[in-house]
Specification:
This protein is an alpha/beta fold. About 35% of the residues lie in helices and about 25% in strands. It contains ten helices and 19 strands. Strand 15 and strand 16 form a beta hairpin. Helix 1 packs across helix 9, helix 2 packs parallel to helix 3 and helix 7 crosses helix 8. It starts with 6 loop residues before the first strand and ends with a strand.
Length: about 350
């Protein structure tokens, strides 16, 4: 799941409590307010508003203050912003700009300067080596979520097909391998009858024709679309062939939520449930919680193991081998929660 970013305005959000600049800790002792720098994607990002909302919610719960920089669209702007935050002696810096590997490489020295000044740095969604990486979910968790979404609809029984895309990133093969191993173990009454490759992967470019598949497998009850390509084009074919309620599907929603209108229409029609890598509100919340935790413990990284974040997040795990703090909660969009997660045109 990828994203993008930029600069333009600096929004200073001061979170006040009844104790002024001090909040109470769980023990009742005064808790000094920290200032945390947050660099997020600009208006072009579908998930940035939700991530920022989660970050603001965490800051309010923790008694912290955010300095939010939006729309940092190039490496130099990001570097200048990080250096400005260092000069302000902020307690921690969290960044997500998704401008590609070349931009990340240019920004890394500035983040290293922050850590040299004892300011912990974090990145969310995208991994910035050296910073604590706050990630949505692992590849195995995501594959399991797709399988679980289909199993619920199929009532855990019947024939199904897995539809990868080609050519594809290695992650698609990882999802395929994980789903093939997980479903027989977790849902023994579900039976895979085929793996059928579809389109090129991203966007509404699916090439799979379902009519021949439905003719070949007349007892088919489910499809797992591993890539957005078939997630866009497969479920409408179930509507057109009058198979809604007979054949179900679970599909990769790409960068979601919000859910793009084509996918939302399929969810509403009952021809698909869409799986997102995670809830961006929860991701933003976890990022600021982690920034606060590191700053208060005067640490640049976390010890491997579980952490009880509380709030909307609960327990998460930190994986030391790649500095990953994993939210671990893929989000499945169904008819029941479609209106709550939002729709993007």
């Amino acid at each position: 799941m990828n994203k993008r970013l930029g600069i333009g305005a600096i929004l200073v959000a001061a979170v006040a409590t009844t104790a002024g600049l001090l909040a109470s800790s769980s023990s009742g002792a005064p808790r000094a307010q920290l200032t945390i720098g947050l660099i997020v994607q600009g208006p072009g990002s579908p998930t940035a508003p939700e991530e920022e909302a989660g970050a603001q919610s965490a800051a309010a719960a923790l008694g912290d203050r955010l300095v939010v920089t939006e729309d940092a669209s190039d490496a130099q702007t990001q570097i200048d912003t990080i250096k400005s935050l260092i000069a302000q002696h902020v307690a921690a810096i969290a960044v997500n700009t998704d401008q590609g590997e070349a931009t990340i490489e240019q920004v890394l020295p500035a983040l290293a300067q922050a850590r040299a000044a004892s300011i912990p740095t974090l990145s969310f969604e995208q991994r910035y080596p050296g910073s604590v990486w706050v990630n949505q979910s692992g590849s195995t968790q995501y594959a399991h979520a797709l399988a679980d979404a289909l199993a619920r609809q199929m009532r855990e029984r019947g024939q199904y097909v897995i539809v990868p895309c080609q050519p594809a990133d290695s992650i698609v093969q990882t999802w395929l391998k994980a789903a093939k191993a997980y479903i027989p173990r977790r849902y023994p009454r579900m039976h895979r009858v085929a793996v059928i490759y579809g389109g090129i992967g991203n966007g509404p470019a699916g090439t799979l024709e379902l009519r021949p598949v439905l003719r070949k497998y007349p007892h088919l009850r489910g499809l797992i679309f591993l890539c957005p390509s078939e997630s866009y084009t497969g479920p409408p074919q179930l509507v057109h062939t009058h198979n809604v309620g007979k054949v179900f599907s679970a599909g990769n929603g790409g960068d979601c939520p919000p859910v793009y209108i084509t996918l939302a229409n399929s969810v509403r029609a009952g021809s698909e449930e869409v799986v997102c890598g995670g809830d961006p509100v929860h991701l933003g919340y976890l990022t600021i919680w982690a920034a606060d935790y590191l700053a208060r413990h005067h640490a640049l990284t976390l010890a491997p193991g579980p952490y009880d974040v509380g709030g909307p997040v609960g327990t998460v795990h930190y994986l030391g081998h790649n500095q990953e703090l994993r939210l671990g909660q893929p989000l499945t969009v169904t008819k029941a929660n479609l209106d709550q997660v939002g729709i993007s045109r």
